[in-house]
Fold this sequence. Notes:
By secondary structure, the protein is α/β, with parallel strands linked by helices. The protein has one domain (3-221): Phosphatidylinositol (PI) phosphodiesterase (TIM Barrel, Alpha-Beta Barrel), CATH 3.20.20. 34% of the residues lie in helices and 24% in strands. It contains eight helices and eleven strands. The strands form two sheets. An eight-stranded parallel β-barrel has the order 1-2-6-7-8-9-10-11, surrounded by five helices. The chain has a two-stranded antiparallel sheet with strand order 4-5. α4 (122-131) links the parallel β7 and β8 (136-140). It starts with a strand and ends with a helix.
Amino acid sequence: MTLAFAHRGAPGPGQRENTLPAFCDAVTAGLTALESDVWLTADDVPVLVHDGVLWSRHGRHRIRDLRSDELPARVPTLADLYAAVGPVVLSLDLKDPDAAEAVLVVADAAGATGSLWLCAEAPLLRDCRARSEQVRLANSTRLRGRRLIEPLVARLAEAAVDALNLRAPEWTPARVRMTHAAGLRAFAWDVQSPQVLDRVLGDGCDAVYSDSVTLLLGLHSS
């Protein structure tokens, strides 16, 4: 079954992305997989927010320089999310490489490590695998004109990474076959239209990330 990740929850008019209402609305709508970016606060709490900075009337503040109790109420912690929706399938983009250990501690406490996907570049994923055999790992990257991906997927397989996550236009049937042949899953992000969805599914991709809850629900019902 294809995984359908609600990218940053279910944001909409008047509702911010990466907030508990956005995540809860996606789950209420019937989606079973969520996506977010994760950063670490000054007191080592993993929080779900896209950028590593927040703006206020006092200026620009790095998440890493703020304690969790100094953040706006709209910024949820990872523990908040698990308390609200339970141990759903969750994909977290490790924007702060120092967040990996704290994320795994929170996921383990929620009984959710086996349904957690951590997305990052390969060197960080090696460290994540050394910390946990249960967590799922996806190398989120861009090919940047690279034509052959066999060396890449071979390195990922050797590092016990579970998936290669590319922007949807970079996938081709041949690349999906190479990825599967190495024992990895093929994930596609930035899937925002039925045409792109049909193409990556036809290519054989195993998961998609989209901002459109409607599009993802159509995948679930097909």
